[in-house]
C-alpha cells in the first residue's frame, strides 16, 4: 500500500469527497481547536484566515507523529448582507436563515491553509476565495417543506449546495467548490506557493 502523503485536518464530508474526487493520496483527521467567531472580530476574511491557521497550529501541536506529512486545513463562513452567519446551533436559528437569505445577497468565504513540512520549520500558505449567491424566493406553501428538506445544523450558514441544497439559489457567481468549503483552484495555487508538485500526490499520476 502506498504511503499516505497528505492529511486533511477536517471531518467535513464535503471536503473529504472533493479530495477523493481529485484522486489525492490522503487521510482525513478531525481537528478540535476553538475557533474565532464574529464576537471576536466582525471581519469575515480575517475570521476564515485565522481559523484555518488556528486549525493547522492545533493539529501540528497535537499530532507530532504526523509532522512529516503535508497538512491541509480549511474554514468556511457565510455572510448575508453585512451579517456573518455562523453554523446554527439550534433549529430555531436555522429557521430564521431562509428569510435572511431571501432578503440579502449571500456571500460564501472559504480559507485554505497548506503546510509543507520540508525545510526546517516548514512552509505554509493561506488563500481565500469568495462566491456570491442569489437565493430563490419560495411561495409560502413551499417554505416549510424547503426548510425541512434542506437546512441543517451541520453546515456553515445552515446549508450545502449539494443534493437538495441546489434548489435554494437561482445564481452562483464564483466557485461551486468554494461554497462546499474547498476551492480547488486555491488549493492548487497554495501547493505551488509552498513548493509542492500537486500532481505527485495523486494516487494515479498520468504525467
How does this model look, in words?
33% of the residues lie in helices and 25% in strands. It has helices at residues 13-22, 44-62, 91-103, 140-150, 176-180, 184-193, and strands at residues 6-9, 26-29, 70-80, 83-85, 106-116, 123-135, 169-173. Strands 1, 2, 3, 4, 5, 6 and 7 form a seven-stranded mixed β-sheet that branches. Strand 5 (106-116) and strand 6 form a beta hairpin. The longest helix is centred in the first third of the chain and has 19 residues, at 44-62. The protein is globular. The two termini are 21 Å apart. The relative contact order is 0.17. The model has no long low-confidence stretch (mean pLDDT 89).
Distance between the termini: 21 Å
Assign a percent range to the helix content: 25-40%
Q: What's the rounded overall pLDDT mean?
A: 89
Structural class: alpha/beta
Q: What ranges have pLDDT less than 50 throughout 5 or more consecutive residues?
A: none
Main β sheet profile: 7 strands, mixed
Question: What general outline do the C-alpha atoms trace?
Answer: globular
Q: What fraction of residues sit in β-strands?
A: 15-25%
Helix/strand order, N-terminal first: EHEHEEHEEHEHH
Radius of gyration: 18 Å
Question: Count the strands?
Answer: 7
Number of helices: 6
